[in-house]
Amino acid sequence: MNSKSRTAMSWVVVLVALVLACGCGSTVRGSGLPGEPDVRALDTGRFPTTPPKLAKRLDDLGYARLEAARLADAVLSPHEVDSKYSAGATALAHTDVQSVMQYLAEPAVPVLLKYGFLLGFSTGSADEKLPLMKGSEDSNQRAGLTVTVLRFPDPTAAKSAAAELDTADFAINPENVAVTLPKYPDSRAHWRPAVPTLGSTTPHGIYVISVLADARTTDINQLVESTQKYLDAEVGELDKFTPTPTGKFNTLRQDPDGLLVRVVHERGVVPPPDGQGEVVLTLRGYLNYVLDQSGRFPVLQRAGVDRVAVTPNAFGFRTRDDAAATRFVQESAELDDAVNRRNVDPPDGVPGALCVQDYVAPKDAQFRCFVAYQRYAALVLGSRLWETQQRAAAQYALLANSQR
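User: That's the sequence. What structure does it adopt?
Assistant: Structure tokens below.
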């Protein structure tokens, strides 16, 4: 069996590439409401504090990326199905065949092209903070699931694609043995008895659900059980999801909830979706990208977060209410192992702001600052403390100005 390859991917690692823009002046309007600071007095450096401009139209790729981000809401993190899978390992939206090859074997390419693959989404999590790499003899280092949901033009295409995807993968290794999923007669599955992984391909309506189950022992019953448990939950989510018709992708809006324009953009413009960022995700969609799922998911849930705006170096969160946003900031700053972080000074004059230095984070995200204004909270990232403080001050001012 040639198992699908997965790239361990932290949402922070992928999205925190710091874009240093020159010549962006800080334009501040408004003053503080009673009991609030005058945001014009904050040290916001070169960062703008008024809402960025948003393009009225996108190209076809941009709209496809918006639909893939919508699909993320219908693809369950394995952690939601089984809490033991506590460590997020991978997540990626697909709008082209090549990106799918990070999860499926190369022989899948002609099958996807033949049946008109449209878009998809992949997610994965495990019981250890290890990357879910391709199945091999050392797979027993963790138990986990990696899932790829692919959308096709119609159910007939999806069903044919599912069968041929399994056939193509099965043919790669002579040691592969076919396996039956009793609850899913249309599924195709196979494994190598000496390797504790099971690959399956299941058609469901216009979708194909590819699941790679990893285990610590070569127990085929356990692998089948974990796969079917996930499918039981995922099929229900796909049934509740309403896909945008292929000819209507251009009716989608990049910022339907007005959250992206509440997040600091250094150039004062919201770029088109880039395949990972500049989109607004639901809580479920965002969870797929979180590394510490068992730690962060409860914090997000307690705050009633229902939308998350994602940009290269800042995240915006819409919480239940003002009190929830304040609590979210406090709890978020205390996450992660205390030995790997320390509290640092927040920006002057920003009420309730909290900042930390993370010793094990990538350099561009070493400093994190959290701010909140009314029901909105934000996280900003940076490589230098003073600059991250300025960005956080500008983020607070932007949130305040956006309410007026």
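Confidence is low (pLDDT under 50) at residues 3-32, 133-137.
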